[in-house]
Amino acid sequence: MPYPMEWIDLGRVNYEPAFELQLRLHALRRADEIADTILIQENPPVITLGRSASEANILAPRKELQATGVAVIEVSRGGDVSYHGPGQLVVSAIMRLRDRVASIHEYLRLIEQVAINLVAEYGIQAERIPGASGVWTQDKKIAAVGIAISHGVTLHGLAVNVDPDLSHFELIRPCGLENTGVTSIAALTGSKPGLPDVRDRLLHEFGQVFESPVRASGVDVAELMRRSKE
Q: Which residues of the chain fall short of a pLDDT of 50?
């Protein structure tokens, strides 16, 4: 049996300190001081720009975004523009790639499969669309996927729309795609599952897809976040 993965749930947290923590965990994983770790969070409204992002895909002026409390941050993942906010489960997988899969392509397909299996738990049939990242249902994106790999260890991962304010996605051109609709578990089912329930199902699917036990991490998150501010 493959060695276990561990998970950490930060709850609702600003994107920037959570990303600093992710970098700290990434360094620890590179040094083999921690296991592969799934970092889970919910963020206040924020637009993130990946390495290939175009400013033209932000459809609202920066002053308007600032006035409405939407931050804009450049990040190290691949891809274009994404939105994160309350009601969305943001998942970063910090894994040594060669220990789990044979290629980046295989890893991406497995991450997408986690999201496909997760929304199926709520009666939603989702799929991949050739040439477009993420997971889709009824021609609308329900989960965004974007990763980075440094020194053989992954960063970032996926964002699952549970019950976010879908109007916020109108502030961007998601992933740079024209006429892209966005949906959520709540919009499709008429119910609003709590993020802890979605998290638990997601962790189960990670274990199933990667054929690995998943357990809570013993990492002192408060100490790591304190050190990340030094």
A: none
